[in-house]
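Dear support,

I submitted the protein below through the web form. The confirmation email said the job was done, but the results page showed an empty box. After a refresh the structure appeared. I'm attaching both so you can tell me whether what I see now is the final result or a partial one.
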Amino acid sequence: MSSVLLVAHHERGEAGALARATADSLHADGHRVWLTPGDAAALDLADLAAEAEPSTADLAVSLGGDGTMLRTVKLLRGAAVPVLGVNVGLLGYLTEVEPHALQHALERWFAGPEAGRWQLDERMMLDLTVHRQDGSTSVTWTALNEGVVEKQESGHTVRLQVSIDGAPFTSYAADGLILATPTGSTAYSLSARGPVLSPRLRAVLLTPVSPHMLFDRSLVLDPVEGVEVEVLGHRSATLSVDGQPATSLFEGDRVSVAPSEHVARFVRFGERRFHQILKAKFGLTDR
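What the results page shows now:
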């Protein structure tokens, strides 16, 4: 018997229906299946709610799009639980199967990696630590896609000093700075005209958002090259992590970036060619 955590999009009816059907099927096969109380309440699936720690699952099944995948990884808090992504969304870069293929995918999962012909795709994550100017607190968040230091006040830029390996690099006057993983290179950073990186790489991508300066290029750095962002001047900023607000930042506050000791683990069936996924999602043609 295996323990399976279901994480479903709250606003897509198909995700709720799929969660119910999947839970019924897995229960019939003797497996333990549950949703977090919040998901269960939002989807009217109260009988599936459990207070169990997500990290105790043998498998997490994400029913939604990339946002639900990010939420699933966050729930696991670095635990080495594989995530199977089901695309009940739009782009679905991170997901693996379509809803109609979920039952067969689960059968392959339970058969094991050799018989089921699956493997785990490990993705690096970033630790973003906030150091307060007065030395009062130090808090760390972990991101699969990116951390973003951005302005709080509409109509104004924020000034941010970037240091690399302990040495000042430059100060940016911009709407913000994106600190992304290779996985996150196809998220917010892409919208800000940053480069697309293969998720096989280990790198930190720094992309300015609407910079008011001549140097407006992204930087691709080795993860061991420590990056630190300091808020300059009186205009405050906000740190968001994987699209969710984390904390406010004020003059002198610093955000340091380092590769996390944890990785996200995604279940993949067969060879997964990133450039072919990119081609399909953007509708690129051969000629």
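Response: this is the final, complete result; the empty box was a page-load delay. The chain is about 20% helix and 40% strand.
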